[in-house]
């Protein structure tokens, strides 16, 4: 058992865990970060590898053998599959089919996330005041603005200001360029519907920032980024926390239970993944940033925070890869050899029920994310892909909002 008492223990090293460690250590606190996965370095990144560099050309059957669930995620590949949990070693019961994508590596899913980064709008936060359903959020947009700005200045979000109340502008680096087909769509949508199509707002640099280089459009961001152009916690927030000298990083440490003393959290019990030894770390404050489901499971295993029967309920998820596609004959597909590939798409902000309370019984709205690409074998046809899905989130006291999101990889430039 560790005898030191830290000011805080942060469980998880992803997007939120990295920020918690950075802010706390820079404020002078001694912090222990507990991460279930191993350390990661840029030497492990494979974004520049060719298929010929792999024994199975990037499509090893062993990925699906060991990770039949993780392997269904586009980001889990022959070159980086070790970042993801082994489904054989970490099974879970499914009453209904549910793909639980889990990464166990320093930085977690910040190494493979889609990087789309948008502010919530006043309309998002005041749904009940707008249409009478559910509850308004307990914070206002104005209260969130200083935190949005802090994050945007540090991370580096590329995008284009549009001046829409339902899609608040932020502090942006220059937005990525649209393809010819996307520009045609943007102009047509504005002319015929009065709606906006904009380039995605993404946590990928378009110019150097904080020692990180601008994106060079190599494509497969989920396999790592040697120039650190996309935001991931190990090389930004966690690195900053380490520079303070007040961060103790415990990797290969699987959090098992928060132990209490006199009704308060006192120490965290974790399992050393390599030695299988049970260990503990003590602190005054515990910050659980192990992802929504892992943090919930940890609280359940600890027997705490379940008095109101809300723990483990009212969780939010996204429908993945729903949508539609079509062709755009206006543009000619010319021979093209490959990269650069823009790691971003176009975005259609919510346009439904901005001023109206409802439309034909439908409340709230949806957003679209997609791209227009040159197809490899389209014989002169451009490809239009708009991906979007729907998810209803019901929080405490039936608070609800309808969101539509999506993401698609790849693409070809005209």
Please provide a brief summary of the model:
The protein has 414 residues and is of the alpha/beta class. The protein contains eight helices and 15 strands.
Annotation keywords:
six-stranded mixed β-sheet; FAD/NAD(P)-binding domain; five-stranded antiparallel β-sheet; 2 domains; 15 strands; alpha/beta; 414 residues; 8 helices
Structure write-up:
This protein has 414 residues and is α/β, with parallel strands linked by helices. The chain folds into two domains: 5-113 and 228-302, FAD/NAD(P)-binding domain, CATH 3.50.50; 122-223 and 316-405, no CATH class. Helices cover 18% and strands 20% of the residues. The protein has eight helices and 15 strands. The chain has a six-stranded mixed sheet with strand order 6-2-1-9-8-7. Helix 1 (15-26) links the parallel strand 1 and strand 2. Helix 1 runs parallel beside helix 7 (237-243). The longest helix is centred in the middle third of the chain and has 15 residues, at 141-155. The radius of gyration is 23 Å and the shape is globular. It starts with a strand and ends in a 9-residue tail after the last strand. The model is unreliable at 377-414 (pLDDT under 50).
């Amino acid at each position: 058992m560790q005898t030191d008492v830290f000011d805080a223990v942060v469980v998880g090293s992803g997007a939120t865990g990295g920020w918690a460690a950075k802010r706390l250590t820079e404020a002078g606190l001694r912090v222990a970060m507990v991460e279930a996965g191993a350390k990661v370095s840029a030497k492990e990144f494979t974004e520049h590898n060719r298929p010929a560099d792999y024994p199975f050309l990037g499509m090893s059957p062993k990925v699906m053998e060991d990770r039949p669930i993780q392997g269904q995620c586009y980001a889990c590949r022959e070159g980086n599959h070790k970042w993801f949990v082994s489904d054989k070693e970490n099974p879970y019961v499914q009453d209904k089919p549910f793909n639980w994508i889990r990464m166990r590596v320093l930085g977690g899913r910040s190494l493979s996330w889609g990087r789309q980064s948008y502010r919530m709008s006043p309309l998002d936060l005041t749904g009940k005041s707008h249409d009478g359903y559910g509850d308004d959020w307990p914070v206002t947009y104005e209260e969130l603005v200083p935190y949005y700005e802090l994050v945007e200045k540090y991370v580096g979000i590329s995008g284009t200001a549009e001046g829409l109340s339902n899609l608040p502008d932020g502090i942006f680096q220059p937005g990525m360029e649209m393809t010819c087909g996307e520009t045609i769509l943007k102009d047509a949508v504005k002319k015929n519907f009065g709606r906006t199509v904009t380039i995605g707002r993404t946590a990928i640099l378009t110019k150097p920032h904080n020692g990180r280089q601008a994106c060079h459009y190599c494509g497969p961001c989920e396999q790592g980024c040697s120039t650190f152009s996309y935001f991931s916690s190990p090389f930004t927030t966690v690195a900053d926390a380490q520079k303070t000298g007040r961060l103790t990083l415990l990797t290969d440490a699987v959090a098992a239970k928060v132990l209490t003393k006199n009704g308060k959290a006192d120490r965290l019990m974790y399992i050393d993944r390599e030695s299988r030894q049970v260990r503990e770390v003590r602190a005054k404050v515990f910050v659980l940033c192990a992802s929504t489901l892992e943090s919930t499971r940890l609280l359940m295993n600890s027997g705490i925070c379940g008095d109101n029967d809300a723990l483990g309920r009212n969780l939010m998820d996204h429908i993945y890869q729903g949508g539609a596609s079509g062709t755009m004959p206006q543009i000619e597909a010319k021979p093209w050899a490959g990269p650069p590939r823009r790691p971003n798409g176009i975005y259609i902000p919510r346009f439904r029920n901005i001023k109206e309370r409802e439309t034909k019984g439908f409340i709230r709205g949806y957003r679209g994310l997609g791209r227009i690409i040159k197809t490899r074998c389209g014989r002169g046809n451009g490809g239009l892909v708009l991906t979007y899905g729907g998810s209803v989130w019901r929080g405490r006291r039936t608070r609800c909002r309808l969101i539509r999101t999506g993401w698609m990889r790849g693409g070809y430039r005209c």
